[in-house]
Amino acid sequence: MSSGPAGQTARSSVQPLTRVQPRAMSRSTLLTSDGVRIEAAYDPGPGPVGGPAIVLAHGFTGDLGRPHVRRAATVFAQRAAVITFSFRGHGGSGGQSTVGDREVLDLAAAVEWARSLGHTRVVTVGFSMGGSVVLRHAALHGGRTEARVDAVVSVSAPARWFYRGTAPMRRLHWVVTRPVGRLVGRLGLRTRIHPHEWDPVPLSPTESVPLIAPTPVLIVHGDQDPYFPVDHPRMLAAAAGGTAELWLEPGMGHAEHAADDELLARIGAWATASWTSATAE
């Protein structure tokens, strides 16, 4: 849902428009490479300056202030610094949601901010729509750019676009594609949705995964997910050709709401494991 492809031309996005003191819980405003202002928050976590940072990418209709996003950030902050932000069209950020297309530019801005604060290892953790965004972002930002990531965790993500095989996804498509649905999204869900279809259609999550290696990828999915059944994570894992780790969580539903503290703690441990091992040597 954009007027052009997202991610291919992302460069150094962004110096924060508002400055922060790096060792205090802080808020800032970032500017993406296409000129959208993104609200962001930084929790320095328990480690030293330059330790690992987790950038949390929320799901559709979320934002950095939602209780389920804050809960996940609090669990992650027990192990690492955490950056949360609101995707375009959500919360206090500008612009309109493109439901996973140009959101890669928002994530790139947040990752670059993490590196500007001195974090040498940055891991992205995305939920649902954010789970698809972290995969596309990692595929499009390899090499030594400041928007690169050192590991990727995708939770409850779709494998393919335009999926309508479940009732929740049919409702979501109604919200996104119909004028009255977008009105409901703006007034009832506090999400401003772009009115145009994707042109061109962005790289799908399944197409993105093979391009991420050798960066480590973790795919997490609940076997009771009402939005995307388990063929989605299995397709993603298969597309990775054995380079991604897959956790199918018994009894888990969808995204941040369904991820309990124990699962979030395991994700945080996975995200920081290689940094912890390296510093212990």
Automatic annotation (TrEMBL):
The keyword Hydrolase applies. Residues 1-18 have a biased composition (Polar residues). Keywords: Hydrolase. Residues 1-26 are annotated as: Disordered. GO terms for molecular function: hydrolase activity. It comes from Streptomyces flavofungini. InterPro entries: AB_hydrolase (IPR050471), AB_hydrolase_1 (IPR000073), AB_hydrolase_fold (IPR029058). This is Alpha/beta fold hydrolase. It comes from the Bacteria. The keyword Hydrolase applies. It holds the Pfam family Abhydrolase_1. Residues 52-158 form the AB hydrolase-1 domain.
